[in-house]
Amino acid sequence: MRFGLVGTGYWAQITHAPALASTPGAQLTAVWGRDPAAAAALAESHGATAHADFDAFLGSVDAVAFAVPPHTQAPLAVRAAQAGKHLLLEKPIALSADDADKLAAAVEEAGVASVVFFTWRFNNEIRAWLTDEQARGGWSGQGWSGGAAIWLGTSNQPGNPFNTPWRQEKGALWDLGPHLVGMLWACLGPVIEVTAVQGKADVVHLVLRHQNGVTSTVTTTQSAPEAATGVTVFVWGEAGRSVMPVELVDPVAALRVAAAELIAEAAVDRPAHPCDVRFGREITKVLAEAEAQLPVRPAE
C-alpha cells in the first residue's frame, strides 16, 4: 500500500517516516507539509516524493498518515477520506466534538479504513496485559472496581521538541489525556460521564464514570518537574491491583503495527478496528466535555 505522510515535524521525523518506510506491505511514497522545504528534505531522506499541492499528493497514494496538530489534521483528513484514501490518524482526531463528527461521517460515507494511533494500544506487552484484564473481567468491569491513570509530563520545558504551539494552547488534557482516557475505556468500558477539575498550571483531574457503573480517575500535566515525571496506569478490585507495563513502549514499532493493521482493515468490506475513527470520536467527545467544565486557559 502506498502511504503518504502529512507533516514534517519532530514526530513525523522520528516515528511516522521511519515506521512507514519499514512496515511490510507499506511504501512511504509521498510527503506533504506546510513547510515545502521541510517536506522536500524528509521525502528525500526516505526516497519519497514531496508535493506542494495537497490534491496532487492525495492522487499519488492509497493511504494517508497524519503527523500534524489536530486542528490541522481534521479538515485535511476529511478531504483525504472524500478522495477514497485510508487514514492513519493521530490522537486526538480533532479538538471539538463537531469536527470529530464530521471526520467520522466522511470516513463512514467513503467506506475507507481508519486507525487512530493511540500508541499504547499497538504495543505487544500492553496488549498482552489488556488480554489478561479481559480474561479476569477487566473490560466488562466485573472483575475490577475502578482504575487510575496518571501522566506527569515535562513537554512545557524550554527546548523540549514537543513544546509546540497547539500543546501550549490546549494543555495536557488534549495531548496526554487521549492516551489516559482511551486506556481506562479499554480496561473498564465506555465512558458515559466526566467531571473535570483544574489544578495549578495545566494540571487537570478527571473523574470518569463508565457504562457499567465503575469509576476511574485521570491526572495529567505537561508542566511537571523532571524529578516527578512518569506514567502510571492501573486497575484495582478484588484481585488486587494490576499495573499496565509502560517501560518498553517503542513508538516506531507500535506505528508499524498500526500501519499493518490499517492495511488489513482496508482489505475487508466493512472496516471496524477497535481504535478506528469512531473510537477517536468518542474520546474527543469526553475531552471536549471535560474542557467545557474548566476555566479558560490564559495565554502563555
UniProtKB/TrEMBL annotation:
It comes from the Bacteria. Pfam families: GFO_IDH_MocA, GFO_IDH_MocA_C3. Residues 1-116 form the Gfo/Idh/MocA-like oxidoreductase N-terminal domain. SUPFAM superfamilies: Glyceraldehyde-3-phosphate dehydrogenase-like, C-terminal domain (SSF55347), NAD(P)-binding Rossmann-fold domains (SSF51735). Keywords: Oxidoreductase. GO terms for molecular function: nucleotide binding; oxidoreductase activity. Residues 157-241 form the GFO/IDH/MocA-like oxidoreductase domain. This is Gfo/Idh/MocA family oxidoreductase. It comes from Trebonia kvetii.
